[in-house]
Amino acid sequence: MSLSDHRYIETTIASTVANQFYKRYKTRHGNHLRFLNILGKEIFHLEKKIKAARNLGELNNATIELQTLIINACNKSFKIKKQLLITKPNWWTEQLEIHRKKVRALRRRAQRAPEIERQARYLVFKKEKAKYKRHIKQARNMDWRKFCSAASHPYGKQYKAAFRKSVFPSQIPYLMNGDPKRSLQEAAQNILDQIFHSPAIPTNYNLTTSTQPPDPPFSPKKSRW
User: Fold this and answer.
1) Poorest-confidence range of 21-35, 114-128, 131-145?
2) Where is the composition biased (Polar residues) (predicted)?
3) pLDDT band for position 107 (50/70/90)?
4) How far apart are CA 124 and CA 113, in angstroms?
5) How many Å apart are CA 79 and CA 31, to the nearest integer?
6) To which H or E segment does residue 79 belong?
7) 43 membership: H or E segment, kind and range
8) How far, rounded to the nearest angstrom, does the alpha carbon of residue 157 sit from its chain's CA centroid?
9) Concatenated DSSP letters of 89-117
10) CA distances from 16 to 2, 13, 60, 97, 149 (A)
11) DSSP letter at 156?
12) Phi first, then psi: what are they for 90, rounded to 5°?
């Protein structure tokens, strides 16, 4: 409502520009000749149409026709790339969303507050922001613990998510109980000792005797073979 005696100013916006989302194609793996053959059948006709354009409307129509031709040629020649949708993380909840909006609102209030109240409002904002960060950290840790608890293989996706390519499975025992400053031979021996434990009672191979008779010596004829 307004007490002004002026008439309303009405503005009509007629825009022909629209946002269009095109597919993404795998152009690295060949089929370029097929693409050129499909495009070459109509390219001369479009070239004449572009040269014969006398105004902006005719040029726009020729451009749209060229774009449509390129898209159709790509659809017939190349495979389409899979577009992975960016989804929210599993640990993100509705409570965190509400808390984030609250923190942003407190920041805006602190920025717009008068000079006398600004410092006090910033203190409230910083306390709430610290609490918000702590809740995010707790949610991430709980989700990570749940993710690791569901592991069915010791070197599955949980291991890859934690170490990637920085630590190999054979290096885990060495990193747990070894000194990384020693030589490679000592490191390898430490890994073997951790993976293959020595028996409680070591075997003395010098005391073992065989009940079988010794093998007969080789004859000169057998030694030739």
Assistant:
1) 21-35
2) 203-212
3) very high
4) 12
5) 10
6) strand 79-80
7) helix 32-51
8) 13
9) -TT--HHHHHHHHHHHHHHHHHHHS-HHH
10) 33, 10, 12, 37, 54
11) S
12) -65, -30
Q: Look up residue 27 and give its two tokens.
A: 């152009």
Q: What confidence tier does 165 reach under pLDDT thresholds 50, 70, 90?
A: low
Q: Where are the alpha helices (DSSP H) in 113-214?
A: 115-149, 157-163, 172-177, 184-195
19, pLDDT greater than 50: no
Rounded distance between C-alpha atoms, residue 44 and residue 50, angstroms: 10
Tokens encoding 219: 């004859």
Q: Facing residues of 163 across strands?
A: none
By CB atoms closer than 10 A (0-12, 13-18, 19+), residue 30 is exposed
> For residue 178, what are its two tokens?
């070894």
SS3 (DSSP) at 122: helix
pLDDT recorded at residue 135 = 94
Exposed (0-12), middle (13-18) or buried (19+): which is 73, by Cβ within 10 Å? buried
Confidence of residue 133 (pLDDT cuts 50, 70, 90): very high
